[in-house]
Amino acid sequence: MDFANILVGSDGSSLMEAVFDECVYLAQLTGATIHVAYVLDITGFGAQPIDASWEEMYVIIKAEARRILDAAKEALKKRGVAEASIIDVLLEGHPAEELDAYARSHAIDSSSSERTAEKA
């Protein structure tokens, strides 16, 4: 098992704790970099007119996404992952599609969704 890059799609829930534990374990075994991503799922807002209220909502949603990413980064650091080995990224669009595109474009060896599917 040789991983250089591990992708974690974080939703900010308490369920992420177990995912972080597994990713840290793999990263410590292999020296991999952990990419932690949050996807702003704005697909449901496509039919909404873009006006001041949408812009305000977008700012609020984006700030919450940033908070989730910062918390994920802190959780990984508390588990012993060096800050230099953590890349956080905020994506926009349909979550599955955006995570897949990111994984393909960043040479991701393993992702939290792949690992979960393997256990099912």
What labels would you give this structure?
elongated, 18% strand, 51% helix, 4 helices, alpha/beta, four-stranded parallel β-sheet, 4 strands, Rossmann fold
| Strand ordering within the main sheet | 3-2-1-4
What helical percentage do the residues reach?
Answer: 40-55%
What is the CATH T-level topology? Rossmann fold
Number of domains: 1
- Protein structure class: alpha/beta
State mean pLDDT (0 to 100 scale).
87
By CATH, the superfamily comes out as HUPs
Low-confidence runs: 114-120
Query: What's the architecture in CATH terms?
Result: 3-Layer(aba) Sandwich
Q: How large a portion of the residues is in β-strands, by DSSP E?
A: 15-25%
Main sheet specs? 4 strands, parallel
Number of strands: 4
Element-by-element helix/strand order: EHEHEHEH
CATH class: Alpha Beta
Rg, Cα atoms, Å: 15 Å
Count of helices?
4
| CA distance, first residue to last residue | 20 Å
Shape: elongated
